[in-house]
Request: fold
Amino acid sequence: MVLKRGSMKNRKVLQYRKIVEGQLGRKLNSDEIIHHIDGNEHNNDPKNIEILTRKEHRLKKRIKPIINDNLYKQAIQQLDKISIDSFKNDLNQIFTDRQIQVLFRRLNKQILSKTESEMYSRDIKKKLKALANNQLFEIANQMIGD
Reply:
């Protein structure tokens, strides 16, 4: 459903708002926003939904992490197991040197230039989404094992 602007009686309620209101047993306040943790508004699993104020939601969108904390911690732990050269080689198979620089600047929460932001949203983010896809990850592991 599409949320229409205008008077309240002309407004359609989004499905995930109905789901959350049903779970809470009350209507959401006008200042409450439904945030889908994985970014997929069709994934209405209660574990994927959190209620935020408008201010919290704006901040979360502004400093949205590239990867979640658990994956980041696992990646750091795995760096101890593999050599840095091997890790760099793997990164270079997917990203250019400049993209790697921008990726790590973003991971370190450094402010990106306009050009870097465009590169991130146009190229890097798409590659990261593909890397985060569990099905693609499983297929890649199967094919490597052949």
